[in-house]
Structure formats: structure tokens, C-alpha cells
From TrEMBL:
Pfam families noted in UniProt: HD, HD_assoc
Protein name: Deoxyguanosinetriphosphate triphosphohydrolase-like protein
Domain of life from the UniProt record: Bacteria
Organism phylogeny: Bacteria, Bacillati, Actinomycetota, Actinomycetes, Kitasatosporales
SUPFAM superfamilies, A to Z: HD-domain/PDEase-like (SSF109604)
The family this protein is said to belong to: Belongs to the dGTPase family. Type 2 subfamily.
């Protein structure tokens, strides 16, 4: 059903999404009349344990770390998600989306990320290969629809866990890659996917009526908000932590390194000279932080640059999208978010700067090697000793796996589910505890 819109006081009101958009996997009554379905979705994500755990998961700099020169106060997955939600809510509202719906998608988009960031994601993908692999976005859907304890239905087979039981529109908006592994519409070899095989029933329900392989408008707003938030804030964190001196971005050899990373990872289709032109456009701005010494003045200037960049990227997308689709509210599959190539290139260059000067530091590579050892040994110990070491929720699921068509694969998925919920510190603590038990066993 197409959404309808009301006009109040001469201005467009918030969009009224159709009944199908508001459906939940399991019907349930509202506890308090007057709340919208998307306000309820937002509250469920905001109050979830999965969101709280992101406070202990790596974004760019490991939680609890600090620079020898000054306190880095690095962002975590939680603070990134909150900042992404603020960006997405405002951009979505400006384009006519329901702001609670977009904020819900932004808050939920990283719920499935495991300890140690993308490094941990790669390790768990290797460990879970016999069960179909691991992907943070597919894990987010699994948490939202199955693992996060909130709603239960005796009407369903088995235990009837339905996760947060969010609306169809909210789950669709949180789905960045609406396909199974190998189903990327343009690149079947892409490691990015949004659903595991055993979650296909709920995925089919939430994608009912959606064009195959296409993300809804709210998911596109979430995706761009994520790109904007992490590219800008990773740059800010890198500068604040003392890993990046902004002055070097005018040095020929240093710029060459950045453009090489950009061409390889973030803007592979860019033409010759385009990344350089994008960086130069930013360096020419009056608000660009050309130096940083940790003083209050420098911190304020850096923070202003952060705000300017976010506004620059969001306004570019808003203007281009409005030019293409007009001034009315844009929702679901009625439009595509248009982001100018110039903005995408500037965003890509910022990602490349943080990659080159923070992520590629030699000390971080040593840390990543150690993190991979922790996760591999942790998985090995849990698979050998489970249900010992599993939380009660996952111990129950491990026992239920004996009834699956392929018990070994089902048990492996439970162990991976358990590991993925752990914070960085919790993964290390459980690894130490199981190692000590092994020594005394």
C-alpha cells in the first residue's frame, strides 16, 4: 500500500506508512495508546542489551585506550551508532521520512558487530564457514528478529523467540544488504550480505513486496548517514589521538599514500586526479583544521570542522535528492537517495586518511594479530567444551541444536552467536578463564 500524507497548518505532516509497513512478525497490542509503531521500535532498540554492549566494542581506536600525548576519548561502536542516529534522523526528516523509523535503523545498524571490530568480523567469518559464514549486518538482523530477548510467542514452533519483534518497515530500513551470501546484485563475489540461510523465513516476510536486491529509501538514508558519521569522526579521532598531523595532507608523498588507499578501498572507480581534487576542496575551506595541538582552541576548531563536514555531506545529498524527486515526503520505495559524486569522493578521501594513518599503524597490526588469536582460541575452547562457557541463553540454544537437521552446524552457529555478543573486554576475559580451566583440567 502506498503511504499517504496529511497536511497540518499548511506544512506536510509526518508520513503515514501503510498497514503492511507497520506489521510485526508476531502481532501484539500496544501498551500505551498514542505512541506510533516506529516510536515503539526506536524504544526497543534504545533499551536493548545489544545496543549497550556496543559501548565495549571497537570503532576505530580500542575502548579504554589513550594517547601518550593527550586523552584520546575514542568513539566506540555505541557512540558511533548514537551519532549516526542523530545524523540520520535529521536527514531523514528533511526528506520526509518518519524520523523515528530512520533513527531506529541507524541505532540498529551495528548491533551485530562482534568484538574487535572488522578484525573480529573476518575471524568469525572463517570460524563460521561450515555454517555459512559470518557478517555483521546479517548478525544484526539475527539479533533483531531472534536473539535479543524481548518478545516471545508460543504460537511459533520451538521456543518462539522473535527478538525485538520490530515492524516490517523498521527491519527493512535496518537492512543494508538485502540478499543472502553470494546474492549481491552486481558483485556475486562480494563478502557483504544481510541474512543467513536459517533466517530466510523472517527475511522473506520483511521483504514482502520489495524489489529484489534494492534497499528502501530509509535504509539508503541510514547507509549514507553511517558513511558520513564514521568518515568524519574517524578523522576527528585520529587527529585527537595524535595519530594524524593535518599538516602532512599538503605533502606530496603523504598525499600519494592517501590516494593509493582511496583508489584501492574506498573509491576504486574514481578517475585520475579526482581524489586529489576532492581533498583539495576540503583543504581550501576556511574551517578546515590545518594543525592541532590539543588546546581548547584547537579542539573547538576541530569540532567545528566535524560539524561543517557533516552538514556539507548531508546538504549535498538532500539537495540532489530533492532536485531529482521534488519537494514531497520520500519514503520506502518511492525514491532513491541521490548523493553527488563529489560528496562521495570527499567522504572516501576522509576514510582513506583515517585508514592510512590510524588503521595501518604497526602497533595496531600487532594488536589485530593478537585479537585474532584470542577469538580463534576462544572458539576452539567453546566448541570443545560447550555448553560450558556459554551464557544460559546460548546454553539452551546449544541444547536445542541437537534437534536440528544438521546438529554440528547448528551448534557452531550458536557458539558464533555467543562470541559475537561479547565486548572486547569480555572476549578477553572469557578467553583467559577457559584457558585457565584448560590448564587445571
Amino acid at each position: 500500500m502506498e503511504p499517504s500524507f496529511a497536511v497540518e497548518g499548511g506544512a506536510p505532516a509526518a508520513p503515514r506508512y501503510g498497514p503492511a509497513d507497520l506489521e510485526r512478525w508476531v502481532p501484539e497490542p500496544d501498551k500505551r495508546p498514542g505512541r506510533t509503531a516506529f516510536q515503539r521500535d526506536r524504544a526497543r532498540v534504545l533499551h536493548s542489551a545489544a545496543l549497550r554492549r556496543l559501548a565495549g566494542k571497537t570503532q576505530l581506536v580500542a575502548p579504554g585506550s589513550a594517547s601518550p600525548a593527550w586523552d584520546a576519548t575514542p568513539r566506540t561502536r555505541l557512540t558511533h551508532s548514537l551519532e549516526c542516529a542523530q545524523v540520520g534522523r535529521e536527514l531523514g526528516a528533511a526528506l520526509g521520512c518518519d524520523p523515528d523509523l530512520v533513527e531506529t535503523a541507524c541505532l540498529a545498524h551495528d548491533l551485530g558487530h562482534p568484538p574487535f571490530g572488522h578484525n573480529g568480523e573476518a575471524v568469525l567469518d572463517e570460524i563460521a564457514a561450515p555454517a555459512g559464514g559470518f557478517e555483521g549486518n546479517a548478525q544484526s538482523l539475527r539479533l533483531l528478529t531472534r536473539l535479543e530477548p524481548k518478545r516471545f510467542s508460543a504460537q511459533l514452533d520451538g521456543q518462539g523467540y522473535v527478538g525485538l519483534n520490530a515492524t516490517r518497515a523498521a527491519l527493512d530500513a535496518a537492512t543494508k544488504y538485502p540478499w543472502r551470501r553470494g546474492g549481491h546484485p552486481e558483485d556475486p563475489a562480494s563478502p557483504k550480505f544481510g541474512v543467513y540461510e536459517d533466517d530466510l523465513p523472517v527475511f522473506g516476510w520483511l521483504r514482502k513486496g520489495a524489489p529484489e536486491g534494492r534497499t528502501c529509501f530509509e535504509a539508503q538514508v541510514m547507509d549514507w548517514s553511517d558513511d558520513v558519521a564514521y568518515s568524519v569522526h574517524d578523522l576527528e579521532d585520529g587527529i585527537r589521538a595524535g595519530h594524524l598531523d593535518p599538516r602532512i595532507l599538503r605533502s606530496g608523498p603523504e598525499r600519494g599514500d592517501v590516494f593509493e588507499v582511496a583508489a584501492e578501498r574506498y573509491a576504486p572507480g574514481a578517475g585520475e586526479g579526482e581524489p586529489a581534487a576532492a581533498l583539495d576542496r576540503l583543504l581550501e575551506q576556511d574551517w578546515w583544521p590545518h594543525s592541532y595541538d590539543g588546546t581548547a582552541h584547537a579542539q573547538a576548531r576541530l569540532k567545528d570542522a566535524t560539524s561543517q563536514l557533516i552538514g556539507r555531506f548531508c546538504l549535498a545529498a538532500e539537495a540532489a535528492t530533492r532536485a531529482a524527486h521534488g519537494s514531497g515526503p520520500l519514503t520506502r520505495y518511492a525514491a532513491e537517495l541521490i548523493v553527488p559524486q563529489s560528496a562521495r569522493l570527499e567522504c572516501a578521501v576522509l576514510k582513506a586518511v583515517a585508514d592510512r594513518y590510524v588503521m595501518q599503524r604497526p602497533d595496531l597490526e600487532r594488536l589485530r594479530r593478537e585479537q585474532r588469536v584470542v577469538l580463534r582460541e576462544l572458539a576452539e575452547a567453546l566448541l570443545a567444551r560447550a555448553p560450558e562457557g556459554l551464557d544460559p541463553q546460548y546454553a539452551d540454544l546449544y541444547a536445542e541444536a541437537a534437534l536440528a537437521a544438521d546438529p554440528d552446524t547448528a551448534r557452531l552457529r550458536v557458539v558464533v552467536d555467543q562470541i559475537s555478543t561479547l565486548t572486547d573486554a569480555a572476549a578477553r576475559a572469557l578467553h583467559r578463564a577457559l584457558a585457565m580451566r584448560g590448564q587445571h583440567g
